[in-house]
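Reviewer 2 asked us to include a model.

Predict the structure of this chain.
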Amino acid sequence: MSKVCEITGKRPTTGHNVSHSNRKTKRRFLPNMVTKRVFNPQTGKWEKMKISAHGLRILNKRMR
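Predicted model (structure tokens):
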């Protein structure tokens, strides 16, 4: 399952888990993804989109 936002293009990034003794192990930072039905006025149909929470805020702001 893809973890890429269709609005903002956000995708997983990498980093480290850092312990108290400063040992580092690899980890992934995943975007906060939501599957949302969005109305497309150009086609006149509802489409399912995978967007991040930040992308959802952008959509809500543009709809006003």
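DSSP finds one helix and four strands in the chain. Residues 6 and 28 are 20 Å apart (CA to CA). We have added this to the supplementary material.
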